[in-house]
Design a protein that fits this description.
By secondary structure, the chain is an alpha+beta fold. The chain has one domain (2-139): Nucleoside Triphosphate Pyrophosphohydrolase, CATH 3.90.79.10. Helix content is 26%, strand content 35%. It is built from three helices and seven strands. It has helices at residues 2-6, 51-63, 122-139; strands at 9-16, 23-27, 38-39, 42-44, 66-79, 84-96, 107-110. The strands form two sheets. The protein has a four-stranded mixed β-sheet with strand order 4-1-6-5. It has a three-stranded antiparallel β-sheet with strand order 3-2-7, with no helix packed on it. Strand 5 (66-79) and strand 6 (84-96) form a beta hairpin. The longest helix has 18 residues, at 122-139. It starts with a helix and ends with a helix.
């Protein structure tokens, strides 16, 4: 078990932002750890795969969305009861397709986030996004 804690699992995570500035959150499906919790969509990076490729693959597999471009934003590590993960967050304003529930998950566009419960590692990111939005709004005034 100590070996698992020392080697985090790399996860590519995408923050899709639509034309209204809303972000896409997905709900973890039944049968997965933290089922029912809301998070940014994404998934594990496979061996030999780049993080950006994993992001694009996961969005196509899970939501039917083709990410054209994404900017790496930040990375955090979080230790859950079931896994130690290193989350690589990307922001995308440029994609093709409308999100679909290809793995039975719910999803929702959120301006002010109203869904809950939120996955613990998602909460600080939402707070950082709020700060980023406020800064952008201030610069545009």
């Amino acid at each position: 078990m100590a070996e698992q804690a020392a080697r985090p699992i790399d996860v590519a995570v995408g923050i899709l932002v639509n034309a209204h500035g809303d972000i896409l959150l997905g709900q973890r499906p039944a049968g997965k750890p933290y089922a029912g919790y809301w998070e940014f969509p994404g998934g594990k990076v496979e061996q030999g795969e780049s993080i950006e490729h994993a992001l694009k693959r996961e969005f196509l597999e899970e939501l039917g969305v083709d990410i054209i471009s994404a900017t790496e934003w930040c990375g955090i590590e979080h230790v859950y009861e079931h896994a130690h993960v290193r989350l690589h967050f990307f922001i995308s304003h440029d994609w093709r397709g409308e999100p679909q529930s290809l793995e039975g998950q719910a999803f929702a566009w959120q301006g002010a986030v109203e869904v809950e419960p939120l996955l613990p590692a998602t909460i600080p990111l939402l707070e950082w996004l709020d700060v980023r939005r406020a800064e952008a709004a201030h610069q545009n005034t």
